[in-house]
Amino acid sequence: MKILIIEDEQKSALYLKNSLSESGYQVSVSHDGIDGLFMAQSGEFDLLILDVMLPGIDGWKIIERLREHSTIPVLFLTARDGVEDRVKGLELGGDDYLVKPFAYTELLARVRSLLRRPPLRPQDSLSVGDLHIDVLKRRVQRAGQRIELTNKEFALLQLLVQHQGQVLSRSQIASQVWDMNFDSDTNVVDVAIRRLRVKVDDGFEHKLIQTVRGMGYRVEEYSA
């Protein structure tokens, strides 16, 4: 398995490269955002470990550009530890988010989890009420109106609609959308649901995304 690390702090990058190499991975390193993006777009790598603050272009821009054409798993590894930063990284298309300083054993566990995750085989299209999802083209419409979603918003909506009528707990959502264990002190799921509601339900008479108090969330057609 080939891993690309985009990290401008050279000591940290060298530590990661040596440690992951000892764990059996082929590791390449870039210290610059522009060069790192070019390498990541080559299609040669199975996993990207990405810092946020980088010279050239930052990690946010890298994943935005990358997600236009690539589904390579991305693990953010950064000192930016705010909830909004974690939410942003995951919504832009990150698969996991680990804050520095970190334990290498935890990093390795997350790397292994991302690399063994099977590829998704989604349905071609999904619908609930007047909401329609073209899964292959990653397009969402409601009442004929196009809705622009981030990668994580799309994945969240797709999960809810696939299980329409069913209540999904926060831990189920976190596990399937972000491939992470749910921490009761983390409101990543609630923030993502709130943002998704603004795009999917605001301005429409019937609300599709429902909160089931004490249990989680569900999508259901026009229920009171």
UniProtKB/TrEMBL annotation:
Residue span(s) of domain Response regulatory: 2-115
DNA-binding region coordinates: 123-221
Residue ranges constituting the OmpR/PhoB-type domain according to the UniProt record: 123-221
Alphabetized UniProt keyword annotations: DNA-binding, Phosphoprotein, Transcription, Transcription regulation, Two-component regulatory system
4-aspartylphosphate modification, residue list: D51
Pfam families noted in UniProt: Response_reg, Trans_reg_C
Top-rank taxon: Bacteria
InterPro entries linked to this entry: CheY-like_superfamily, CusR-like, OmpR/PhoB-type_DNA-bd, Sig_transdc_resp-reg_receiver, WalR-like, WH-like_DNA-bd_sf
Protein name stated in the entry: Heavy metal response regulator transcription factor
Organism of this sequence: Comamonas avium
